[in-house]
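User: I'm writing a short report section on ligand binding and want a predicted complex to refer to. Could you take this sequence and fe (ii) ion and write out the structure as tokens? A short remark afterwards would be nice.
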Amino acid sequence: METVTKSTLTNNSATDFLPLHGTDYVEFYVGNAKQAAHFYKTAFGFQSLAYAGPETGVKDKVSYVIRQHKLTFVLTTPLQSDNSIADHIYKHGDGVKVLALQVDDAKSAWEETTKRGGKSYMEPTILKDTDGELVLSGIHTYGETVHNFVERKNYKGLFMPGFRAWKSDYNPTDTGLLYVDHCVGNVGWNQMNPWVKFYEEVMGFRNILSFDDNDISTEYSALMSKVMSNGNGFVKFPINEPAEGKKKSQVEEYLDFYNGEGVQHVAIATHDIVKTVTELQKRGIEFLNIPDSYYATVLDRVGKIDEDLAPLQKLGVLIDRDEEGYLLQIFSKPLEDRPTLFFEIIQRKGAKSFGKGNFKALFEALERDQDARGNL
Ligand code: FE2
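Assistant: Sure. The structure tokens for the complex follow:
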């Protein structure tokens, strides 16, 4: 059953104990950040922004910060084997470690969430340099993933104290990626509701949409999902758990290969999905293949859209409509050899939902790849 509670998406900061300005950055722990940075710049059109490593006084790791519009990624790799970043990569492969959220008051964010049961990852810490001071704190969420709270109102530097500008002569053109639309977590069997409760109680989020295994099932496999949103709707975290089907759920495949719970996909907004995806495909990013039969009937389901269907079909862009408008979305293949993290590119034209009408076509496409890996 899909349930929409529109009234919860109001900007009621007076009662919101954790007001959020949106995603500040996403940090990935990766095996080779130098190469990952080159990949994200080349394939996705990010620009070099900042760097921290031995040259800036950091001895155990290197981080590259890249940016495109409001989308900031941090790519971090360990320099030694005996540290927690190396352990993380050994266990999970490359993946998302930090979903950082921008706040006005990182001390209050930490206090309000930890007193409601959040487990501290980092106590409020003031970082200073000549550009001012930045306050950072953090709590744990599902798996080994964490939420950092970033207060940058008294900081005018590029990224964070400890980082220096990363100037590069290699500056591929951007691909129109704008900001994080939502980030989806995969959690274990029967763990969706406990994590829904965590986002409600610890972070003050609301459950705005729910999908059960009747909504999200194919002939073979199933999952369940609940979408959590903060008060102003700037931050949305759908939470998936596997459901029983004839064959193995895609969420279970993720859990097997990520070795636990973690971020399944980051959805990134664009104003022109045809332009963005054309560019990404040209640069080698692969997306799930959608059969032509999907396009034979899609307009009967979604009605009139502004775009021509032919380019959408050529690229494999999916279309869905809700009562507020429609959306265009496409899903990349996993960005690692492990079938774990992937990206969604999404263009919203009024719709605030997540493409429920595409679940079947999408999951069948996913299962074809899952089957090819021998994991279905
Ligand atoms: Fe999504």
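A remark for your report: The chain has a mean pLDDT of 93. Residues 23-165 form a domain with the 2,3-Dihydroxybiphenyl 1,2-Dioxygenase; domain 1 fold (CATH 3.10.180.10).
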